[in-house]
Amino acid sequence: MLRLAICERDQEYRHQLAALLEANIKPLECEIESFCCAEELLRCLSADYAPDIAVLGILSDSERAISLAEKLNLLIPACRIIFVSDELRFATEVYRADHVWFLLRSELSERIAPALRKALSSIETYRREGIVIRSRGNVTVVPLDEVLYLERDGRRTIIRTEKESFTSSEPPSRLLKDALAHSFIHSHRSYWVNKGKIESLAHDDFVLASGELVPISRSRRAEAREEFLNRSEK
Predict the structure, then answer these.
(1) Could you tell me the CA-to-CA distances from 24 to 54, 63, 106, 112, 136 in Å, in that order?
(2) Which listed CATH number (3.40.50.880, 3.10.410.10, 2.60.40.10, 3.40.50.2300) goes with 2-127?
(3) pTM passes above 0.70
(4) In which band, very low, low, confident or very high, does the pLDDT at 234 lie, cut at 50, 70 and 90?
């Protein structure tokens, strides 16, 4: 089931947005949650709420909505963002944050369907992205959102997920090419941890949502801590 979040100060307009989203997301099943402010939505994120699509309203001040979008980009990279505003002048400002569409309220009824289609297509593409493992002529793609961490053990790399492990002869530097590298923190000489799976930071370990611990070496502690804090608090 898809989770859709609406963040909009005007209560009446929140109801209108929810009705439009529900009508245009069919036949897919969805759960729509409405929030009156960024703080309310962020509190829910800290309680394990993770929307697939977030519709953010922009009124006279664009800074709050864009700042919220930037935090969503960091905390929930898979979440696709749609901005809605009365004013076209905000269309350039929103490019500070990753988003799939900027909608004017005056054209919402006509444009919401293509905006949702683009968001859904982007989600599907993201979920297909992953670590490519080549072994004996076979190719396996482990989706990024399933990977907990990578561990380099001698001449092999172990890719750990919650359900199973995969092995590759390629080093993490080759497995985590291009955009994938930005989703991991190199916390130890032998460990690369998925930012999206980190629950908290202990002194010498990252604590994952699964309960597992990924070590942080003394030489990488400052850099790993900075990356984690930027990911969580930017």
Answers:
(1) 15, 28, 17, 7, 45
(2) 3.40.50.2300
(3) no
(4) very low
